[in-house]
Amino acid sequence: MMNDPQIEYPIYIADHGNWMTLIVNLTELNYEIETIDIETDEYLGWDSNGRRVELYLDSRRNIDIKLISYDCYIHELITAILAFAKTAKKKVAFTPSKENLSPYELFMEVDRFINNIWD
What we know:
Blueprint: E1 11-15, E2 20-23, H1 26-32, H2 35-39, E3 43-46, E4 52-57, E5 63-67, H3 74-85, H4 103-118
Helix pairs in contact: 3-4
């Protein structure tokens, strides 16, 4: 495993079904993500600055990550986080506590919303 020094953690990983997780380091990445899903290109990813990242398998079949764009895709990241909120599929829709939350703040609110609904 190699840690790309240009990637700003945490990183946000979303799958095509709108599930999402927040990864704080490369070691955690290998515990949270399944290699089969890397092989089938199941994930989208962003670093904390909203730059796109790509997950791949290294020569030892460990999951690694690389920065694939220096452009900022914060709006895309926020849209993915809000789609994650809809996975709760409850009568009450998620509403952010205030406008202009950072992606991290928004993700944490969504995560609390989902966990409170599912408890």
